[in-house]
Design a protein that fits this description.
Largest sheet: 9 strands, antiparallel
Structural class: alpha+beta
Shape: globular
Number of strands: 18
């Protein structure tokens, strides 16, 4: 036992505690702890002051000190770098801070010795955009406290530290909330709560816009990798199984194995006894099947796949009952859903669900074969053959056309030419945009897909995004102000004026993991990494540079990281170099 532990032990005995009351070892986890937080914390200084109300200097002094270097989270008696806010009977100072990029976490407020030694009430408003941080809950703009409190009042101590908040945000507004008081602050820091994990995958090319898009998609998912993997860090802090597929693929591509994926998949399984549908939605149970196939494909963990066999078998048997004798799907429960933007097109949804069931049964057949259940694998394959005889009309819905192409029910070139490429990235969606890009790759139309990535996901970056959004429409761009500015008169508010369904106006999440598809797509099709055997034991390198001059990057496997570089010569031919760890076979 260390000297520190002995001192602590003696202190407790002097205080009358018995030996059984003590933790087993000083500093170790308590035996009755429900769980331990696996995340790290970092404290971030504001990058700029966006706006303030200071009564022409009468109500506020020293605000620039909030941006100074050297913050340490410790109260002091020195009075250095003190930011002071003073309210009157009728005027209340306020300040809006920008922390530079979206984070998940809260706020640390460090007060000084100035003023009376009594707590002071303040109002705190978090925002993913300037508009949201300046808003009030409710009203026409639809700001909410759903899932996470982002607008509330609190007291801060005199000469102390307060830590508060648990939301997704980039901007914070602080107002004095009572009259005739003075509040002196040494620091205001954002508390960034995150998994401290390396970015093992990477992507760099001759196009900086694509590089930013790849990294933004990776960062968006990283923020959502909390104790479980969420859909959004402000709203929809839930494990949504359909939405999870692009996130799982991004984790495979950027981080490699991470326990947050099996932990989240198991949660969904354990809280959804059959014949229930995951998240109350029939299509989301289909995604659970597809996700498990892809997780096994990339990670190669057979023992984990075996743990899923009882539930997988039961779910597949349930799905067989949802196919009629002609091969038509008859899914029910929780609404017939692909994604929100496709909701009005019921005929297109019918086609998409038919294709999604085919994809799920194909995944089921693969996994059952690996698990040694040949009878169930054959039944899945026979159901695929039956269902492929029924090809519903996509009804010009890009989501449906993409799924039909990926399921082999519609030639990819036809799906792309007739539907997906029509209007470029118009009518793309942040979730199903990934599958639209995949269908374009299957059609060999790589350049169009690259252009769509630049236009659609790049359009969010142009509006100040540091993470990708729950939804986006190119029609929103015209005359719209960015999320990082006060909206000028005559301009549209890109956050408050748009959105639909469950994400109207400021309720709209600006950090949604389902929007990360380009990160996966660029690594798979431009960097050219295709997994050919479970556990990445065989990788096929097949780059499609389009109009790029060069691309390089890394790709994580259970055996280690693969490094890849492609350069286009003057003759247009691509020269490739690959460095792979032992246990990974590279084919071309």
């Amino acid at each position: 036992m260390s000297k520190k532990s002995i001192v602590f032990f003696l202190f407790c005995l002097c205080a009358g505690m018995q030996a059984q009351d003590l933790p087993p070892v000083f500093g170790a986890e308590y035996s009755n702890a429900a769980f331990r937080d696996s995340r790290a914390r970092a404290y971030i200084t504001p990058q700029r002051i966006v706006w303030k109300y200071d009564g022409q200097g009468r109500l506020m002094t020293g605000s620039e000190g909030l941006l100074a270097a050297g913050h340490n989270g410790q109260s002091e008696l020195t009075g250095k770098q003190v930011f002071t806010m003073r309210s009157t009977e009728n005027e209340y100072p306020a300040i809006l801070l920008d922390f530079g990029k979206e984070i998940q976490g809260g706020l640390q407020i460090v007060t000084s010795a100035a003023g009376k030694n009594v707590p002071v009430r303040i109002r705190v408003r978090f925002g993913e955009s300037v508009s949201e941080a300046m808003s009030t809950v409710g009203g026409a703009q639809g700001a909410t406290n759903d899932h996470a409190m982002r607008d509330f009042t609190m007291e801060v101590p005199w000469l102390g530290v307060a830590e508060v908040g648990n939301s997704g945000f980039r901007f914070v507004r602080i107002d004095l909330a009572e009259p005739n008081v003075t509040l002196s602050l040494k620091e205001i820091n954002a508390i960034f709560t995150y998994r401290d994990i390396p970015y093992l995958g990477s992507f760099r090319s001759s196009d900086e816009r694509l590089n930013r898009i790849w990294l933004t998609g990776a960062y968006t998912v990283h923020l959502n990798m909390q104790e479980y993997i969420w859909d959004g860090i402000k709203r929809d802090r839930l494990v949504w199984l359909g939405d999870l597929h692009p996130e799982v693929m991004t984790v495979n591509t950027v981080f490699g194995y991470n326990e947050v994926i099996p932990k989240s998949l198991d949660l969904a399984r354990d809280i959804t006894p059959l014949p229930g549908w995951m998240n109350g939605m029939c299509s989301y149970s289909l995604w659970w099947v597809i996700i498990h196939r892809d997780w096994y494909k990339y990670q190669g963990n057979l023992s984990y796949l075996r743990e899923q066999q009882p539930y997988l078998t039961g779910l597949l048997e349930l799905l067989f009952t949802k196919v009629d004798a002609s091969g038509r799907e008859k899914l029910d429960g929780g609404g017939r859903f692909l994604d929100w933007p496709s909701s009005p097109n019921t005929k297109g949804i019918d086609a998409g669900l038919q294709a999604l069931m085919v994809l799920a049964f194909e995944a089921g057949a693969e996994m059952c074969a690996v698990l040694g259940d040949e009878a169930l694998a054959k039944k899945c394959s026979a159901t695929v053959d039956l269902m492929k005889k029924q090809v519903p009309d996509h009804n010009q819905l890009k989501q449906a056309a993409a799924l039909l192409a990926l399921a082999g029910m519609l030639p990819a070139g036809q799906a792309d030419g007739e539907v997906i490429s029509v209007g470029g990235a118009g009518n793309f969606s942040t979730f199903y945009g990934y599958y639209m890009l995949q269908a374009q790759a299957k059609a060999g139309n790589y350049q169009a897909a690259i252009n769509n990535i630049r236009q659609f996901w790049g359009g969010m970056l142009d509006l100040g995004a540091t993470t990708f959004w729950e939804d986006f429409d190119l029609d929103w761009i015209e005359n719209a102000a960015g999320i990082d500015e006060l909206v000028p008169e005559g301009k549209k508010d890109i956050h408050a004026d748009f959105g639909a369904y469950c994400y109207k106006n400021l309720r709209h999440s600006l950090c949604h993991g389902w929007a990360s598809g380009p990160t996966v797509w660029l690594s798979e099709h431009v960097l050219g990494v295709k997994v050919m055997q479970p556990g990445c034991k065989v990788l096929k390198i097949e780059p499609h540079l389009g109009d790029l001059e060069w691309v390089e990057g890394t790709f994580p496997t259970p055996q280690g990281v693969v490094s890849i570089k492609h350069e286009k010569g003057a003759d247009g031919k691509v020269k490739t170099g690959v460095k792979a760890p032992r246990g990974v076979k590279i084919v071309y």
